[in-house]
Protein backbone atom coordinates (compact mmCIF):
# COMPACT_ATOMS: atom_id res chain seq x y z
CA UNK A 1 0.00 0.00 0.00
CA UNK A 2 2.90 2.38 0.75
CA UNK A 3 4.23 1.83 -2.77
CA UNK A 4 0.94 2.87 -4.34
CA UNK A 5 0.88 6.02 -2.18
CA UNK A 6 4.41 7.00 -3.26
CA UNK A 7 3.49 6.21 -6.87
CA UNK A 8 0.41 8.46 -6.61
CA UNK A 9 2.61 11.29 -5.36
CA UNK A 10 4.85 11.14 -8.45
CA UNK A 11 4.33 14.59 -10.01
CA UNK A 12 4.86 13.30 -13.54
CA UNK A 13 2.40 10.41 -13.30
CA UNK A 14 -0.47 10.80 -15.78
CA UNK A 15 -3.94 10.77 -14.25
CA UNK A 16 -7.26 10.48 -16.06
CA UNK A 17 -9.76 13.31 -15.70
CA UNK A 18 -13.09 12.15 -14.25
CA UNK A 19 -14.99 14.66 -16.39
CA UNK A 20 -13.44 13.86 -19.78
CA UNK A 21 -11.83 10.44 -20.40
CA UNK A 22 -9.67 11.89 -23.18
CA UNK A 23 -7.86 14.17 -20.70
CA UNK A 24 -4.61 12.78 -19.27
CA UNK A 25 -3.05 15.21 -16.81
CA UNK A 26 0.20 15.16 -14.86
CA UNK A 27 -0.43 14.58 -11.14
CA UNK A 28 1.12 17.91 -10.15
CA UNK A 29 -1.43 19.79 -12.32
CA UNK A 30 -4.40 17.53 -11.56
CA UNK A 31 -6.08 19.66 -8.81
CA UNK A 32 -6.01 22.74 -11.04
CA UNK A 33 -7.38 20.77 -13.97
CA UNK A 34 -10.24 19.41 -11.84
CA UNK A 35 -11.41 22.91 -10.98
CA UNK A 36 -11.21 24.08 -14.59
CA UNK A 37 -12.79 20.99 -16.11
CA UNK A 38 -15.62 20.91 -13.54
CA UNK A 39 -16.75 24.31 -14.82
CA UNK A 40 -16.77 23.04 -18.42
CA UNK A 41 -18.72 19.84 -17.63
CA UNK A 42 -21.46 20.92 -15.24
CA UNK A 43 -23.73 17.98 -16.13
CA UNK A 44 -21.09 15.42 -15.09
CA UNK A 45 -20.02 17.52 -12.10
CA UNK A 46 -23.52 17.24 -10.62
CA UNK A 47 -23.28 13.43 -10.70
CA UNK A 48 -19.86 13.28 -8.99
CA UNK A 49 -18.96 13.96 -5.35
CA UNK A 50 -15.60 14.62 -3.74
CA UNK A 51 -14.02 12.00 -1.49
CA UNK A 52 -13.73 13.28 2.12
CA UNK A 53 -10.18 11.88 2.37
CA UNK A 54 -8.68 13.15 -0.91
CA UNK A 55 -10.09 16.01 -2.99
CA UNK A 56 -8.53 14.48 -6.12
CA UNK A 57 -11.01 11.60 -5.90
CA UNK A 58 -14.22 12.43 -7.77
CA UNK A 59 -16.65 9.52 -7.46
CA UNK A 60 -20.23 8.96 -8.65
CA UNK A 61 -22.76 9.66 -5.87
CA UNK A 62 -24.00 6.08 -5.91
CA UNK A 63 -20.48 4.68 -5.28
CA UNK A 64 -19.41 7.10 -2.53
CA UNK A 65 -20.01 4.77 0.44
CA UNK A 66 -18.11 1.96 -1.29
CA UNK A 67 -15.26 4.34 -2.12
CA UNK A 68 -15.08 5.64 1.47
CA UNK A 69 -14.79 2.07 2.76
CA UNK A 70 -11.95 1.23 0.38
CA UNK A 71 -10.13 4.57 -0.08
CA UNK A 72 -6.35 4.26 0.38
CA UNK A 73 -6.12 7.77 1.82
CA UNK A 74 -8.56 6.88 4.60
CA UNK A 75 -5.82 5.07 6.55
CA UNK A 76 -3.54 8.11 6.40
CA UNK A 77 -6.29 10.40 7.72
CA UNK A 78 -7.17 7.94 10.48
CA UNK A 79 -3.49 7.67 11.48
CA UNK A 80 -3.30 11.47 11.58
CA UNK A 81 -6.35 11.70 13.83
CA UNK A 82 -5.02 8.97 16.13
CA UNK A 83 -1.63 10.68 16.49
CA UNK A 84 -3.31 14.03 17.23
CA UNK A 85 -5.43 12.41 19.94
CA UNK A 86 -2.30 10.86 21.49
CA UNK A 87 -0.56 14.26 21.44
CA UNK A 88 -3.58 15.91 23.04
CA UNK A 89 -3.57 13.36 25.90
CA UNK A 90 0.11 14.08 26.52
CA UNK A 91 -0.50 17.83 26.54
CA UNK A 92 -3.34 17.68 29.06
CA UNK A 93 -1.02 18.50 31.96
CA UNK A 94 -2.52 20.77 34.60
CA UNK A 95 -0.53 23.94 35.10
CA UNK A 96 0.52 24.85 38.63
CA UNK A 97 1.47 28.43 37.72
CA UNK A 98 -0.11 31.12 39.86
CA UNK A 99 -0.01 34.83 39.08
CA UNK A 100 2.05 36.93 41.49
CA UNK A 101 0.07 38.94 44.03
CA UNK A 102 -0.98 42.34 42.76
CA UNK A 103 0.05 45.31 44.89
CA UNK A 104 -1.92 47.89 42.90
CA UNK A 105 -5.30 49.11 44.12
CA UNK A 106 -6.77 51.62 41.71
CA UNK A 107 -9.84 52.22 43.87
CA UNK A 108 -7.64 53.12 46.82
CA UNK A 109 -5.60 55.50 44.68
CA UNK A 110 -8.81 57.28 43.66
CA UNK A 111 -9.90 57.56 47.30
CA UNK A 112 -6.52 58.95 48.38
CA UNK A 113 -7.02 61.82 45.97
CA UNK A 114 -3.43 61.83 44.75
CA UNK A 115 -3.30 63.65 41.48
CA UNK A 116 -0.32 62.19 39.71
CA UNK A 117 -0.71 63.14 36.08
CA UNK A 118 1.31 61.54 33.34
CA UNK A 119 3.24 64.06 31.26
CA UNK A 120 5.33 62.85 28.35
CA UNK A 121 9.02 63.64 28.74
CA UNK A 122 8.94 64.10 32.51
CA UNK A 123 9.41 61.74 35.41
CA UNK A 124 7.90 62.12 38.88
CA UNK A 125 9.82 60.90 41.89
CA UNK A 126 7.39 59.72 44.60
CA UNK A 127 9.97 59.75 47.38
CA UNK A 128 10.98 63.39 47.01
CA UNK A 129 7.82 64.69 45.31
CA UNK A 130 9.86 66.51 42.66
CA UNK A 131 9.30 66.50 38.93
CA UNK A 132 12.38 66.23 36.73
CA UNK A 133 12.21 67.49 33.16
CA UNK A 134 14.25 65.59 30.58
CA UNK A 135 16.55 67.78 28.61
CA UNK A 136 16.58 67.97 24.86
CA UNK A 137 19.58 66.01 23.63
CA UNK A 138 19.86 67.93 20.36
CA UNK A 139 22.85 70.23 19.88
CA UNK A 140 22.30 73.96 20.44
CA UNK A 141 20.59 75.69 17.52
CA UNK A 142 18.51 72.59 16.59
CA UNK A 143 15.03 71.76 17.77
CA UNK A 144 12.63 68.91 17.20
CA UNK A 145 9.89 69.67 14.66
CA UNK A 146 6.48 70.59 16.07
CA UNK A 147 4.66 68.88 13.20
CA UNK A 148 5.39 66.97 10.01
CA UNK A 149 6.16 69.04 6.91
CA UNK A 150 3.45 69.42 4.29
CA UNK A 151 5.90 68.51 1.52
CA UNK A 152 8.29 65.64 1.98
CA UNK A 153 11.85 66.66 1.11
CA UNK A 154 12.52 63.57 -1.03
CA UNK A 155 9.48 64.27 -3.21
CA UNK A 156 9.93 67.31 -5.39
CA UNK A 157 6.95 69.09 -6.89
CA UNK A 158 8.53 68.89 -10.40
CA UNK A 159 8.08 65.09 -10.64
CA UNK A 160 4.37 65.37 -11.58
From TrEMBL:
GO MF entries: zinc ion binding
Source organism of the structure: Eublepharis macularius (Leopard gecko)
Residue ranges, annotated region (Disordered): 89-109, 121-160
Record-given protein name: Gametocyte-specific factor 1-like
Domain of life: Eukaryota
Compositional bias segments (type: Polar residues): 122-131
InterPro entries for the chain: TRM13/UPF0224_CHHC_Znf_dom (IPR022776), UPF0224_FAM112_RNA_Proc (IPR051591), Znf_C2H2_sf (IPR036236)
Span of domain CHHC U11-48K-type: 14-41, 48-75
Sorted UniProt keywords: Metal-binding, Zinc, Zinc-finger
Amino acid sequence: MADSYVDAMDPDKLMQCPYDTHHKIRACRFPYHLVKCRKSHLDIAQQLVTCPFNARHQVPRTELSQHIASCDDRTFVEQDIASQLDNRKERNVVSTWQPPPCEEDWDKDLEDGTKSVFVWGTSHSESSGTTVEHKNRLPPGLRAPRSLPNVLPWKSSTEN
